[in-house]
Design a protein that fits this description.
7-stranded mixed sheet, binds magnesium ion, 2 domains, two-stranded antiparallel sheet
Length: about 325
């Protein structure tokens, strides 16, 4: 079989109810793109018969359908990574298994990629989720835009397309807790977004309860920036400044109104306390700065990614990474 042009990667966790329709609609969407494609279904430790359905489907639809079975549940993004590692297409599209992202949008994503973008994101029109989910999602999207500087509107939607070098770049990142759309954008030069439809979840249940959602938000926040650590120093400096200001204010009032006003020095204790509390925060923030550095180095992300070398001795265009920390 010729190497596929397009890989469709889908993480699947206990989605037996959606699976038959998903497979049929994805295969149809793949064929509609009129190029060699592979559909990679990653079973993330399901316990409801999904595993069997996926392996059977792989036998039935070989070589278009590839089953990747993980030995236990590792979470959505880890499962997508497992699929990315197996993918061979020059364009990789990811989506959810619950049919909230209509597979029929895949040809539109591919057509947009053909214009030369590194990453094509999507914006869910008329999003079919709870008010709480939509609110927290818009808050997080704002934060991500601030921190990454990439103006995308909907980081939560997994229906996205990535070019091969971006996928390879992500696979070289060894960190564990990560959020794929943000990681991809940190390597992309040109990105765009298209509007896609969004359907309510018709079968099965959302795999994210409030605890899992919170943990995902923390992953997201800590994976993209060490700013929260710096915030400690900033808050500490503010508290210390308030303490000093308060001290000066007390001194003036003491001079003007006498010792009785200052309740025999009780308030000055507060001023001193504020300064010390502030100093402690600043100390924590400084420790945080070092931890942030350790965090960045331990992650060992590639420092840069060479797209092409021309001239000199180099006749090919190697896609190489220079790991962080080596020279
Ligand atoms: N998923 C997964 N492993 C998990 C949780 C979810 O592979 O531990 C998959 C799930 O099967 C679905 C996608 O991730 O394909 C998104 O999950 P879900 O639709 O439950 O999330 P929501 O739409 O509620 O954010
Ligand atoms: Mg869903």
């Amino acid at each position: 079989m010729i190497a596929p042009n397009l890989s469709i990667v889908i993480p699947v966790f206990n989605e037996a109810a959606c699976l038959p329709e998903l497979i049929q609609r994805c295969l149809a969407a793949g064929r509609a793109t009129k190029r060699a494609f592979e559909l990679i279904l990653v079973d993330d430790g399901s316990s409801d018969g999904t595993t069997r359905m996926i392996t059977d489907a792989a036998d039935q639809h070989a070589p278009e359908l590839v089953a990747v079975i993980l030995n236990r549940n590792y979470g959505q993004h880890a499962a997508v990574f497992a699929g990315l590692a197996q993918s061979r297409g020059s364009i990789v599209v990811t989506l959810d298994a619950d049919l909230q992202n209509p597979p029929e949008e895949i040809p539109a994503l591919v057509a947009e990629m053909d214009k030369g973008f590194d990453v094509v994101g999507t914006v869910r029109g008329n999003r079919q989720d709870s008010l709480f989910r939509r609110f927290s999602s818009s808050l997080i999207n704002k934060m991500v835009r601030q921190s990454t500087g990439v103006m995308m509107h909907d980081y939560g939607c997994m229906l996205r397309a990535y070019r091969r070098p971006i996928v390879d770049a992500m696979l070289l990142c060894r960190e564990n807790s990560t959020f794929i759309p943000i990681l991809a954008n940190s390597f992309a030069r040109t990105t765009t977004e298209i509007a896609v439809a969004h359907a309510p979840r018709l079968k099965g249940e959302s795999k994210y309860d409030i605890i899992k959602l919170l943990s995902l938000q923390f992953d997201l926040l800590t994976s993209m920036s060490t700013f929260p650590l710096r915030l400690l120093s900033i808050v500490g400096s503010l508290i210390a400044c308030c303490g000093m200001g308060f001290g000066v204010f007390l001194l003036i009032m003491r001079l003007v109104y006498g010792a009785a006003w200052a309740a025999e020095g009780v308030f000055s204790l507060f001023a001193v306390l504020f300064v010390f509390v502030g100093a402690q925060f600043i100390g924590l923030g400084l420790l945080g700065e070092y931890i942030g550095r350790i965090f960045r180095d331990v992650r060992g992300r590639p420092r840069y990614f060479i797209q092409e070398i021309r001239g000199g001795q180099a006749t090919t265009a190697p896609a190489t990474f220079k790991p962080e920390g080596t020279s």
